[in-house]
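Recap quiz, item 2
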Amino acid sequence: MRIAILSRNKNLHSIRRLLQEAMRFGVDCDIINPLDCQLVVDGKETRILVGSNPLPEYDAILPRIGASITDYGLAVVKHFESLDTFVVNGSRAIAESRDKMRSLQVMAKSGICVPSTVLCRSGSGRGTKAAVKAVGGMPVVLKVLRGTQGVGVMLIHTPVSLNSVLDTLNSLEEDVIMQQFIAEGAGRDYRAFVIGNQVVAAMMRTAPEGEFRSNIHQGGTGKLVKLPVAFARSAIKAAQVFDLKIAGVDIMESKSGPMVIEVNSSPGFEGIEKATGMNVAYLIMKHLITEAKKIKKNKVRKEARKAARKTKPSRRARKSTAEKSGRKSGRKTSK
Ligand SMILES: Nc1ncnc2c1ncn2[C@@H]1O[C@H](COP(=O)(O)OP(=O)(O)O)[C@@H](O)[C@H]1O
Ligand SMILES: [Mg+2]
């Protein structure tokens, strides 16, 4: 079996861990920088070149696409998909979950509880008051659409600072969402790691003193928790609505129960492995290899059936052979 991980940086903790586990499974695992991939479509043979060499055929691809190269990374994932290569997670799942507004639209439509949110491209004044009202009043949370690891997430306490931040973002042509501040759960959230249809590890993240963002990259600390059932259900449902087979789901506790604030399609797992003692890299590889084997088996079966169909004579040919052999032996053939 041969698999590839799409990642820009092979020195990242998650990539090193995945490689380690792939080796333990005895599979060949290449690390491919998506930016090194040249995608060829010429109407004859769709292929991917790295340098002047075409990539070999892979049994599975694991995209670990960072936010900074989402568009190019997604084009590479789509190219693998058009080559019928098995990809976990797929391009659509990554694209839909990564966009902070799109992801909330999808989840809200599926009945998952999400914070009240308004997408706004407004400078100060234009409808801002109505937007603030729609998210329950000040303070509000502002998020740039493609931020990650807590960067681009701001807590705004006053209309004056709200206007100046909105004006600044507007001048940078940066779209933002304005969101209800979940005061009762501020400074902590649950991170549930979903693989397949299961939560395999969960931790509670707590922000450092004076900070409302609980991301590990913002100094948050993770500790092992037993995820309450309602939270686990929300996490699994959230991963499923995007068709993400590997997902890190962020859930906050609110007055109205668990609220999903984000679903990550390339979740890091250094923090959660440390906090929970779970071997998440092993579980990811196990899922990938098991699914790839199933798909390979099905492909082989399909091809065998196709080949058998080609060599099998048609019904008409079989009938005429039967009639001929019937005449030879003097038997009557049925009509
Ligand atoms: N509406 C909110 N109310 C209170 N805290 C929030 C809210 N949204 C996010 N946070 C805090 O900010 C952190 C980062 O937000 P998130 O939407 O997950 O963005 P990122 O993609 O940057 O991690 C969350 O883990 C949570 O601690
Ligand atoms: Mg997050």
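The first helix runs from residue 13 to 25.
The two ends are 52 Å apart (CA to CA).
End of item.
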